[in-house]
């Protein structure tokens, strides 16, 4: 079985991440210790905890959030520092069904609320911008915060427009209805119970390594609520869903080669010093109830 390379083809960022920085989204694949589930939709190469630690050290991150279920098991997780439940809409056949998504979110939130431990959240990933007018009410009513992966999977212009258009920097390539849906998402973020992960830019843009067509989107989120954005690497960078079409789910797939440090350098140019500190240190500590 293959494994991830420990060498990173990355340029050192001129602006380092702050001391105490967090990576809020990553994966560990050790099938010899934790066998893969039957019926999975892809088979990743091996990426160990030791590999993750080397990666985080290479970019200057101090904290990683391990997103790993009776209440007793939740108690054990809580004591160990876990602070979120991830809803797998793919597994529940809900990726394209807003009603099932809403029901799953409401049921999970109520369970966490009744369980009564502080600092927990629900993490989701779904690709439908048009679902947010419906999900806005679900999030606003939720007794626990909701965290959205990968900039809500909103595509930059290079991901949506032919010939990798690079001169559309304001989201004007979105249809009118999509812009209304984005406004609903940003309003939810502004209301304070929704958190956005600035993560996995290669799932929204083809303009590696700097992903310049995402600048406007990152700024929309930060401007909506600078205290509700966190950073995540999505290490070790599994392949994009669209690239798996027609491939066997049981065949081991290689990880993407991503220049994380170039992405961090690009991102740093889009944010003020105060916003940078919030993104990396203060916001994740608040979200995950971290106290030194």
UniProtKB/TrEMBL annotation:
Q: GO: which molecular function terms?
A: hydrolase activity
Q: Name one Pfam family in it.
A: Amidohydro_2
Limits of the Amidohydrolase-related domain? 67-243
Sequence segments annotated as region (Disordered): 1-20
From the record, what ranges are coiled-coil? none
Superkingdom of origin organism: Eukaryota
Q: Where is the composition biased (Basic and acidic residues)?
A: 1-10
PANTHER family referenced in this protein's UniProt entry, alphabetically: BARREL METAL-DEPENDENT HYDROLASE, PUTATIVE (AFU_ORTHOLOGUE AFUA_1G16240)-RELATED (PTHR35563:SF2)
- Which named protein is this? Unnamed protein product
Q: Which organism is it from?
A: Aspergillus oryzae (Yellow koji mold)
The organism's taxonomy opens as: Eukaryota, Fungi, Dikarya, Ascomycota, Pezizomycotina
